[in-house]
Design the sequence.
């Protein structure tokens, strides 16, 4: 009887050990899965924002303003990396070929996402096929500035001189294919004048020669041109937007000068490589919209002469398509080519 009565007790011990072992295994698996999920939460390492222009210009200003804000919401460092060369081609191509994991994004603008398509017959990237738009945060007019000792008070006077003296005047740009290059070239084409193009590697060296009197005029983003205009070291002849700028109400638009029926605003935003996973892309768009609409970021853009935007996802893609349809035919009709 003792043997018979001890058998159920022995079986109970086996069951309890099996139960405890199973619970321990389940707990271990759950903890392991939690740890894996924690490691997979995006982002869990630094994020790279590629700027295809040197420090100091409009690309760089917008990228760093957004990166500072996004670093707070992502709880991860957002590092701006200036990758220059061939205007904006080198950095943009690098971003197009980056791993589509959400950890590399491109600072995109009209110049590298629209104007390059009309300028180059064979691009190493396709703005629509190789990128997913995250969002656009700001738009800036361009200001045509001249060295302060240039003997013309208006764009009309400059155009009249250029018609009588082909090739005597020169204009700077931040590189072949940059917005500064294409906008100026389109203006001179429509105005029927020949002005010599002097490309630089970014806006800052262009300003150095403009301030030094070695080049005559420069179409730059109004946000960066403003400093020199306000200081009186350069003079403003026209702005490229559809309306005058509050910071320079006395400076006419291109249309107002009568030189050409032309207008352009350069928008800036972030683009991810194509095939970036949907969860990472959705997180980017959410945080980008929050950053772009934050009062401090909007104030920085406005203070620099920009127009804050919050054009996200498919709306950004539609705006990109619109500008491609508008500018690429115009550039090809004008025969604009890289030099």
Sequence:
């Amino acid at each position: 009887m003792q043997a018979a009565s001890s058998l159920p007790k022995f079986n109970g011990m086996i069951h309890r050990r099996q139960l405890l072992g199973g619970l321990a295994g389940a707990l271990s698996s759950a903890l392991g899965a939690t740890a894996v999920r924690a490691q997979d939460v995006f982002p869990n390492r630094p994020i790279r924002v590629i700027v295809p222009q040197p420090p100091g210009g409009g690309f760089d200003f917008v990228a760093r303003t957004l990166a500072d804000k996004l670093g707070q919401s992502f709880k991860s460092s957002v590092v701006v990396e200036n990758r220059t060369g061939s205007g904006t081609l080198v950095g943009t191509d690098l971003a197009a070929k980056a791993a589509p994991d959400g950890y590399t994004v491109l600072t995109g603008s009209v110049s590298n996402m629209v104007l390059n398509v009309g300028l180059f017959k064979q691009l190493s990237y396709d703005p629509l096929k190789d990128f997913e738009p995250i969002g656009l945060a700001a738009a800036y007019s361009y200001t045509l500035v001249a060295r302060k000792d240039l003997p013309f008070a208006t764009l009309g006077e400059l155009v009249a001189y250029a018609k009588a003296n082909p090739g005597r005047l020169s204009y700077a740009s931040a590189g072949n294919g940059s917005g500064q290059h294409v906008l100026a070239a389109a203006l001179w084409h429509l105005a029927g004048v020949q002005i010599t193009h002097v490309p630089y590697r970014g806006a800052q060296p262009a300003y150095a020669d403009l301030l030094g009197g070695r080049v005559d005029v420069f179409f730059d983003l109004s946000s960066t041109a403003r400093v020199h205009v306000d200081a009186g070291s350069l003079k403003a002849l026209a702005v490229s937007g559809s309306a005058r700028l509050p910071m320079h109400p006395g400076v006419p638009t291109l249309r107002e000068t009568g030189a050409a029926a032309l207008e352009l605003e350069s928008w800036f935003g972030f683009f991810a490589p194509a095939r970036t996973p949907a969860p990472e892309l959705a997180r980017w768009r959410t945080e980008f919209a929050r950053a772009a609409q934050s009062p401090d970021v909007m104030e920085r853009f406005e203070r620099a002469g920009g127009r804050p935007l919050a054009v996200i996802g498919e709306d950004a893609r539609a705006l990109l398509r619109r500008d491609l349809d508008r500018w690429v035919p115009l550039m090809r009709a004008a025969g604009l080519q890289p030099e």
Observations:
- The domain at 141-257 is CATH 3.40.190.10 (D-Maltodextrin-Binding Protein; domain 2).
- The first strand starts at residue 47 and ends at 51.
